[in-house]
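re: that complex we talked abt at group meeting.

here r the seqs, copy pasted straight from the sheet so there may be weird spacing, ignore it
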Amino acid sequence: ETGVTQSPTHLIKTRGQQVTLRCSSQSGHNTVSWYQQALGQGPQFIFQYYREEENGRGNFPPRFSGLQFPNYSSELNVNALELDDSALYLCASSLGQRSSTDTQYFGPGTRLTVL
Amino acid sequence: AQSVTQPDIHITVSEGASLELRCNYSYGATPYLFWYVQSPGQGLQLLLKYFSGDTLVQGIKGFEAEFKRSQSSFNLRKPSVHWSDAAEYFCAVGNAGGTSYGKLTFGQGTILTVHP
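got the structure back, here u go
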């Protein structure tokens, strides 16, 4: 059974550019959540996808968008990058059987640097 | 809105000493509580979780945590720390319902340094 994987590992972009981060959920998991972890901070919830539909969003602007595919893998897209978007982006998957007790399993993250 | 406070930003202990990391939460109903550990440059690994029942929960790597509703706390403990426990520890509360079920709200983390 493979765990949660994310790509790429590291990424460097410049202000104003757009970026796409990818996540493959753990086998059998149909829910994916994305978090942003700025340096020295705890992760902050961006949004969650359950069976290809957005199922809640944190306090992030619309230029943060996502997608979930039929195989439950997911993408996080960020448009018009700003310096403050530099962070570790974490993806987490869970069984998502409409139960808040599902454990979320995290991937290793993508380190995004915006210059 | 739910929130988590970890009062200690950095804790240093000697190898073999006991450890307690503090966590206080704010949540309107019965909380779902978690402790995660993060090694440098890595993702988060679940140590333990509390949903209901016995207020003392056991986790991996010899860690345990106690839920105290009266104090809104969920402190993490280990009787004897190993050098490999050096990492950053995050307490989190889970969203119990509505949209974003399972959404985790994290504290700012506690960095643990272990001296030989």
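couple things i noticed - Chain A has no helices and eleven strands. The mean pLDDT of chain A is 91.
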